Every structure is written in structure tokens, then in C-alpha cells.
Amino acid sequence: MTSAAALVSGFTPRDNKVSQPYRRNSSSSVDSDDSSNASETPISYATDPERPAGQPTPRTTKQKVDRRPPSTFHLKKRSEMSWAERLCDLATCPTTMHELKDDSIDRGPPPIQPAWKENVFVLTRGMVPIVLHQLAYWAFPQYKWPFALAYPFYVLSFIGFALQVMDRLSSHCVKLGTFDEKQIGRDRTPDKSVKHLAYGVTAYMFIRTGIAFWLDYDKNVEPLTSFTWTYPLRLAAWELTLDYFFYVYHRASHEIDSLWFIHQHHHTTKHPTAILAILAEEWQEVLEVFLIPFLSSAIVPMTFSEGYMTLCYTIYVEMMGHSGVRAHWCHPVLWPLETVGMGLAVEDHDLHHRFGKSGKNYGKQSRVWDRVFGTCAERIETYGM
Ligand SMILES: [Zn+2]
Fold this sequence. Notes:
Strand order of the largest sheet: 1-2
Mean pLDDT: 85
Distance between the termini: 41 Å
Bound molecules: zinc ion
Low-confidence stretches: 1-42
Shape: globular
Number of domains: 2
Structural class: mainly alpha
């Protein structure tokens, strides 16, 4: 059985004097509470290979024993990593995000992140391939990009966009801190999930871009001029449609015991980082990466360029919601819903992960459906904001 309990191992906080990497002894007792009995060299969850020798290793949780599954792949040299480890290592966060913060730190109230800034970020990065495609269209009007050229170009652009989102969120987590940071640092990608996550990320990039090509790509249409003034409205409608289907499947997988296996792997993290947005079982990936966005695109029409920008906004919000950045950081498009208590902010999905199977805050783009069906939870650190 793959479950949080099965993933939990005898992962113990490193003694400050120990500076060896974690090595599991096959004869060790894996669920022991007593670190003194562990016949293995433990390592702190916040270990950084760049840390100078002799420097004290920071704590990662207030609990006596850090029960999160081990994550040591990031300590390897890149030349010794598998392709999956290299891919996940691209999303390795700064060590400070995994450290427990001292009670004496006073950051004040979480700041409000302006939506316009995030729209500028998404539009200036997300529009790059569309603008380049348009320039090529103008420079060589006789040559229209076939699928074989356009598809890999947009997939690579989408990967580049996701990496920029990751960097932005991580840098803000370092600057502003993370939710619940005085109880526990953010989780790392567990060793056991690396391969699964790498396949999930790869599938996400190729399939979501593929949906836009399948439904809307026409090589004769100029990419830049295919936006219309109704796009912002259709983008909002698409996100809310996606969120409805997501809400239904998500709540069902939490509340119907026999469906929990679909979603269980995603909840092995209670304090995720942006890349863990994509950690999931195969069934969840089929639903979230393909079926739900496909249904949304079938209901709310888009041109290809609009569809690509919609992908950028969607992955941005999914990564934002899992980043844990300590700010009142709302959906860049659906932020007006915040005025009626239906907007989504980072803390909403962060709390969802902390609740685990017991649920609340099932929406991932808004709190519209949570409000309608009574499954909203009160915010804690951004209460009243
Ligand atoms: Zn969930």
C-alpha cells in the first residue's frame, strides 16, 4: 500500500555534530521514535551540500523526530543523478525554506501581493513564445509552422515558464517566509517519489500543451492577433469551470474512502513546495492533467494562443497554491472574488494540505465552490485580509 504511513520512515533529525549524508542501514528499525536506537547516520531535512563543514545544522521541525520521508537525492553530484533526480533537482528550493524558524523572528503581518504585479509577470513570460512565433510569421509569411515544429517549441517554452515561476515563488519564500514556518520547514521531494514526480511533470508539460494543439492549433492563424477582447472573461470562465470539475473530483476523493487512493499520494506532503503541486498517483494525473482541462476547454472556447496563455495562468496558480509563501497572494485573474469571500489565496490550499484527508478548501483556482457547498476553512495567518 502506498500511503503516508508507508512512506514514513525512521528519518531522524541530525545530531549537530554529525555531518555525514543520510545512509539507510537495511537492518534499521524504520518506525522507531527513539533516534538513539537508530543504527543509521541521520541527516537533517535542511542539509545543504554547500554548507561549510562544522557549521551547525538547523532544525527542521518542532517535533522531536522529523517523520517526513527521507530526501537525499539532492545531495548527490549531478553527474551521479538519474534523469528523474536531475529533473526534480531543477526545482530544489533554497535550504532556508526547509528550516524551522525561531520563535523570536517577527515578520509582522503577511504582506499583500498586488495582482497587477503577478499579471505583468505571467504575461511578460508567458507571451514570449507567442511573440516569437508571430515575428517568424511576419518574417517568413510563406512558411507556416507545422505541428512538428510548433509543438516542441511551445512545450519547451512552457517548461521554461514553469521554471521561472518556481524561481519567483522560491525567492519570495526566502524573502517573506513561509506559512507555519515556526512549527516546521517546507517539505522536500521524498526520494521515494522522485521517479513518480518526474514522470508526472513530463506528462503534465506534454499533455497540457498537447490539449491546446489538439483542440485549437491552426498553422494559418497569426498567433498574436488571435486574442480578442473577450479573452479575460473567457479565461475567468475557464478557470471557474475547471475549478468546478476539480472540486467535484477532489472532494469525492477525500470523502469517499474507496476513492482516496486516487489522491493519497498527493497528500503525503503537508507543507508542500511549488513542484509538489504535480505529485500524484496515475489516476489523479489522468484526471487533473488531461480530463478536467480537456472538459473545460471543450466548454469554454479559446483560440490556440489564448489556450496557451490559459495554461500558463493555470500552472502559475497551481504552483502558487503549493508554494507556501507567507503573503496574502491571490489568484491574478480571479482576485475580484476576494471582495465577496470567494477568492483563492496561497494560505487556502496550504491549509488544505495540513488538514489531510479530513478536507476543507477543495478549490484550487477559487473558493467559489467551497463557499457554495460549505467547505471553506478560516484562514489563520492571513485571517481577515
Ligand atoms: Zn486534497
